[in-house]
Amino acid sequence: MERKRVLITGAAGFIGGFLRQAFADRYVVRLTDIAQIDDPRGHEVMQADIRDLDQMRRACEGMEVVVHLAADPAPNADFCDSLLPLNIVGTYNVFSAAKEQGCQRVVFASSIHAVLGYPREISARSDMPVNPPNFYGVTKCFGEALGRCFAHQGLSSLAIRIGAIRRQEDVDRHRKDSERPQGEGWISQRDLVQLFQRCIDVEGVDFAIVHGQSGQHKPQLDISHTRAVVGYKPQDG
To answer: For 13-26, what is each residue's pLDDT tens digit?
Structure first.
């Protein structure tokens, strides 16, 4: 079967690093970032700035799915200087370019910060109102709404609200020691790779918000909807 053509924005970042390794034999991948990508794993590399719509049009050309990771991930980032041009304008440019270039889907890296304002004892569901405690979370709510808007125009979109990422070696070490990593708001690298793959591959989904958590007893993000929509089966927790 012919492999899907997948563009990853922000591919030089932490998540991009282990995704490009995991995707090596599964998809035909194009990596984009404004920073240098030190270990492209044999994938095509294209330098592109999400703040430039023409550059994103070129990056999306010939791609079927866009995995949009590029953003300022700092919860305390300045809105006007960084969040506005990167997380708002940049995200619009990615969705717009994907639509113009005939891509089939955008998988948007949202964040637990979109609903982090809920009390800790509540496992937030994807159908609950957004509740961001900071402007970074606000920009992720914008990206989710943008995905819904473009879905009405025929561009499938799935937004993954990603929790705190645990390095796989730390998760494995805690399991070996019969200990549990502190906190219930995390997702392992292995589970996050699986979730991205399922969001890329699942058919018949026009729009969905899915939660990126491992299988904790009481996670901050409820994953029942994620299991049902994309068939997610966390291995860690």
So the answer is: 999 999 999 999 99
Q: Would you say residue 237 lies in a domain?
A: no
Which residues form the domain of 53?
A: 5-230
236, part of any domain = no
Match 């799915």 to its residue by tokens.
Answer: 65
Q: Which of the residues are catalytic?
A: 136
164 CB-near residues (< 8 Å, 6+ apart): 112, 183, 185, 186, 187
Residue 39 has pLDDT above 60, yes or no: yes
> Domain holding 75: CATH number?
3.40.50.720
Cα 13 from Cα 34, distance rounded (Å)? 10
Does the predicted model carry a pTM greater than 0.85? yes
Contact of 218 with 190, CB cutoff 8 Å? no
Give me the number of domains the chain comprises. Answer: 1
Type of residue at 32: T
